[in-house]
Every structure is written in C-alpha cells, then in structure tokens.
C-alpha cells in the first residue's frame, strides 16, 4: 500500500522547470497574438481610411464631371480640408485630409484630364489616394454660356472661309474678315459684340475670365457680348503701310456673356 502511494505521489504536480517553460511558451504566444491584434487594427484603420479617401475622390470627380467640359476650364473647385475619419476611443479625435484636384487640357480639344488627390497623415506616416479621369465634350456642351469680366488677345483668321468667321460690331458699323486686308489700318475703340473663330495652335489661349485662364479651342466659334467692351484690332507686322502679319483682337470687357458653338 505504501509502495503504491509513493508511486502516485511521484507522478503528480509540475516541476519548476516545467512551470518556467510553460510560462515562456505562453508569453511568446501572447506577444505574437498581441502583435497580430495591433497589426490587424492598424490594417483595418488603414483600409478604412483609404476607402473613405477613395470615396471623397470619386465624389469630387463626379462633381467636376457634372460641371461640364466647358465650365471646368476655370478650375472652379478649390483645395479643401475635410474630415476623413476619427481615431476611435472616447474622444473620437477627428483625422482630417486635404483634397486637391488638377485639370489638364489634352492635345484633343474635346478632352480634359482631371486628377483628384486626398492626402492625410496617420501614425507619422503620410498616405495618398489618387483618382484619375477624363472629361469629354458632350453635345450638350456645344453651346455653353458664361458671364464675367474678360481680358486678353485672340489670334483671328481673316480669310474668306466660313469656318474662320470674324465679325466685330462697333457703334459705327461692322468689321468683318473681309475688312482685314493689307491696307486696313486697324481699329481701336468700343464694341458691343465679337464673333470669332480663333486661329493657331495654342497662340489664341490668351484670355482670362474673372481672373482665371479661359482656354479657347480653334475648332470652336465664340461670341462675346457686352455693353462695356473696348477692343483693338491690329496686325502684328506692318511694312510700308501694309499689314503683312497676323491679325489680333485685344479685348477688355466687363459683364460679358460668352457663347461657344
């Protein structure tokens, strides 16, 4: 009986070494589990932030497309600081982001490239979400109407082709493309309306509308109307009293309507 009891006692309990080893194993497993939890939380937060940022980019892109091909020339959307998400906890500290956009005129006059970017910082790390898109000129954009103050110059085409129409209405009469011959000395004074199709590949992009660049396409015809308009019709190369260069019209006008065809 004593012998059996002795054997039983020898088989029960854990040695100190076993306890230490078990504690070490548990500690290692705990560290791994804790690290996995922390990493998982970070990944979830990062994914959530990028998801919201993508949504902001998509929303701004749709807004820009909604404005239309012609109106977006003035870059009507400014940079914004917006709430992205919060950092959780009781305080719900907000995490903000910066929303910016870029508009680029492409070689094709019927397309514009736009990009929307959201940038933010989290855990001392800067993250960015960018969305690209194209705005196409639609049939509904063929007759857009703008209004505002304009300044600048347009390189006009005075030949007799109907595709290069030029008509200037002044208090004393009308100046057309047929008027712009070598012997014509130009005009400087008030005007009420201009109908013009720009000439050149980029030389015509010299107008501003309400202080912002107003790009012109040489495939379109523009009509400017204002009761407060001053123009100068000039040739940039006059030799021996003859106009042998390019014809330009300089425009300064307020409260002007601009129609595109």
Short description:
With 261 residues, this protein is of the alpha+beta class.
Could you spell the SSE succession in H and E letters? Answer: HHEEEEEEEEEEEEEE
Largest sheet: 8 strands, antiparallel
Number of strands: 14
Helix/strand/pairing category:
alpha+beta
Radius of gyration: 35 Å
Domain count, please report it. 2
The average pLDDT score comes to 78
Helix content: 10-25%
Low-pLDDT stretches: none
Indicate the overall shape.
Answer: rod-shaped
Estimate what percentage of residues fall within beta strands. 35-45%
Q: How far apart, in Å, are the first and last alpha carbons?
A: 113 Å
| Structure annotation, total helices | 2
- Spatial strand order of the main sheet: 7-6-8-11-14-5-9-10
What does this protein look like?
This protein has two domains: 48-139; 143-260, no CATH class. 23% of the residues lie in helices and 43% in strands. It is built from two helices and 14 strands. It has helices at 2-10, 16-67, and strands spanning 80-86, 94-105, 111-122, 125-136, 145-156, 166-170, 173-176, 187-196, 206-209, 212-214, 222-235, 238-239, 242-243, 247-260. Strand 6 (166-170) and strand 7 form a beta hairpin. The protein starts with a helix and ends with a strand. The model has no long low-confidence stretch (mean pLDDT 78).
Offer a few descriptive terms:
single chain, 261 residues, alpha+beta, four-stranded antiparallel β-sheet, 14 strands, rod-shaped
How do the strands and helices of this protein lay out in sequence?
Elements: H1 2-10, H2 16-67, E1 80-86, E2 94-105, E3 111-122, E4 125-136, E5 145-156, E6 166-170, E7 173-176, E8 187-196, E9 206-209, E10 212-214, E11 222-235, E12 238-239, E13 242-243, E14 247-260
Antiparallel strand pairs: 1-2, 2-3, 3-4, 5-9, 5-14, 6-7, 6-8, 8-11, 9-10, 11-14, 12-13
């Amino acid at each position: 009986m004593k012998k059996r009891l002795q054997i039983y006692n020898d088989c029960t309990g854990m040695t100190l070494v076993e306890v230490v080893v078990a504690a070490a194993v548990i500690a290692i497993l705990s560290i791994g589990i804790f690290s996995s939890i922390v990493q998982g939380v970070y990944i979830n937060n990062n994914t959530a932030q990028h998801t919201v940022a993508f949504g902001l980019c998509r929303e701004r892109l749709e807004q820009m497309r909604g404005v239309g091909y012609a109106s977006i020339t003035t870059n009507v959307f400014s940079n914004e600081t917006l709430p992205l998400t919060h950092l959780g906890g009781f305080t719900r500290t907000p995490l903000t982001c910066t929303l910016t956009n870029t508009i680029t005129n492409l070689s094709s006059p019927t397309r514009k490239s736009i990009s929307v970017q959201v940038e933010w910082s989290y855990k001392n790390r800067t993250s960015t979400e960018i969305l690209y898109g194209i705005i196409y000129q639609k049939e509904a954009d063929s007759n857009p109407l703008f209004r505002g103050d304009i300044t600048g110059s347009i390189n006009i085409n005075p030949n007799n082709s109907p595709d290069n129409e030029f008509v200037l209405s002044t208090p004393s009469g009308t100046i057309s493309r047929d008027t712009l011959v070598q012997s014509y000395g130009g005009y400087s004074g008030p005007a009420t309306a201009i109908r013009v199709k720009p000439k050149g590949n980029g030389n015509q992009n010299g107008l501003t509308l309400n202080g912002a660049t107003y790009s012109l396409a040489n495939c379109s015809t523009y009509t400017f109307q204002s009761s407060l308009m001053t123009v100068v019709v000039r040739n940039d190369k006059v030799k021996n009293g003859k106009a042998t260069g390019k014809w330009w019209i300089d425009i300064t006008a307020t409260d002007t309507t601009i129609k595109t065809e």
